[in-house]
């Protein structure tokens, strides 16, 4: 008897306790078997025998009940502990987003020029022929219009092919001195490894009194800017043509991948073309009614910069929203 009570007291799960109950009080339990012996006991001893068995039965029952209460509590505590949620704990399995490399690059350029006191102008994406072409010295049927594969709307408005129309809008609403940048989206019918139909540019325009702004100013600002973005690279100005600037230049930097030795990215030339610029053409000033002024302008492609800064090979991958690529810019 004592042995069973000990077993019950040290049972460490409700399952073990239940099997102890079956072994003692169950249909074939030892006490049940003892009770079945009652019929063979002489009448005189029956009462004492039954009394003894009933006492044992109640001792075991009480022990089972006490132990059960303890074990149920222990098991409940364990379960609660296992299911506990710490709502204050930081869940670092949550993935958080990153700034897209194009936006990040755009922000860097904007901040750089804002620090030089350039104002930020926005303009508009749907433009008209006057602001996108005509006022920029690109009259109708001018062959240079072919340089830009334009998306036209039915009502003869168009999606701006460059940020240069913001120059016109700013000069029409403001007087000199002007010192502005225009970051934004532009559109051209073009799609291959180096072209997407939508891309980003930042335009800059500086205008002041006649003879105040020279090519030397432009050259200095661009050299400083490109060294800020790319470190110790060489900068070269190549004579070029844009209808809205005269003289015009395209600006190259020594290839950031091969340091000018020649590689696949720079088509073995050692140079990478980075932006277009020039002294604002007199005809542009005429179109907005400015007289006796001088100015420079440049336009830079943001994707180009982002690809060089982040070593991205295919321009199109910037617009595919592939999280494996974007996740690398956290
Ligand atoms: N608008 C030109 C382009 O999109 C770039 C440019 C801007 C060139 C300003 C000169 C001056 O290619």
CATH fold node name of the largest domain: BirA Bifunctional Protein, domain 2
Quaternary status: single chain
In sequence order, what are the helices and strands, one letter per element? HHHHHEEHEHEEHEEEHEHH
Low-confidence stretches: none
CATH superfamily of the largest domain: Bira Bifunctional Protein, Domain 2
Bound molecules: phenylalanine
Domain module tally: 2
Q: Please count the beta strands (DSSP E, at least 2 residues each).
A: 9
Count helical runs: 11
Question: What would a concise description of this structure say?
Answer:
With 330 residues, this protein is of the alpha+beta class.
Protein described:
Strand 6 and strand 7 form a beta hairpin. The protein has 11 helices and 9 strands. The protein has 2 domains: 81 residues; 229 residues, BirA Bifunctional Protein, domain 2 (2-Layer Sandwich), CATH 3.30.930. The strands form 2 sheets. It has a 7-stranded mixed beta sheet with strand order 1-4-5-9-8-7-6, with helices on both faces. The two termini are 71 Å apart. By secondary structure, it is of the alpha+beta class. Helix 2 runs antiparallel to helix 4 and helix 5 crosses helix 10. The site of phenylalanine (PHE) has 11 residues, from strand 8 and strand 9.
List the helices and strands and how they pair.
Blueprint: H1 2-10, H2 14-25, H3 30-36, H4 43-82, H5 101-115, E1 119-120, E2 126-127, H6 129-132, E3 158-159, H7 165-173, E4 178-187, E5 198-209, H8 215-230, E6 235-242, E7 245-254, E8 271-280, H9 282-287, E9 293-301, H10 302-310, H11 323-326
Parallel strand pairs: 1-4
Antiparallel strand pairs: 2-3, 4-5, 5-9, 6-7, 7-8, 8-9
Helix pairs in contact: 1-4, 2-4, 5-10
